[in-house]
What we know:
By secondary structure, the chain is of the alpha+beta class. The protein contains two helices and eleven strands. It has a single domain, classed as Jelly Rolls, CATH 2.60.120.
Amino acid sequence: MSYPDPKYVEGKGEISAEFRPANTPADLQSKNGSRTQYLATAASTGGEFGLYRVDMAPKAGGPKTHFHRSISESFFVIDGTVRLYNGESWIDGKAGDFLYVPQGGLHAFRNDSDEPASMLLLFAPGAPREEYFEKVAEVAAEWSPEQQAEFFLKHDTYWTD
């Protein structure tokens, strides 16, 4: 494997870095107290990747088993215990643990503990996941089965049950 073709060819470099201070408010606050920070979106990375910090409230649960056809998903546990499903079994992910799920890989995650948990989610290539995060609870609770199916298809999410 080699490096991809250059995207920047000017030769002198440029000032284009984007800094996000740690105290930046969460982009999304869920009713259960969980928070999501959009650290790097598909829009800000030119579609290369999306990186999100998810701070889950105690007993926050999580999505059931699913897979993606066009994006990989990686999980890096920052703090607490995140239950990670690797397609075969559930693993108690602790700080520093990492799970990579390629396209088509079955996976799920949840916080079943009595303590908060935090993780980084990395999607590659980048996809517009913000709408997914912002609407998924509403979709599950209020939308018709047909509307739900269209929403999940739009967001490359395929449920196994």
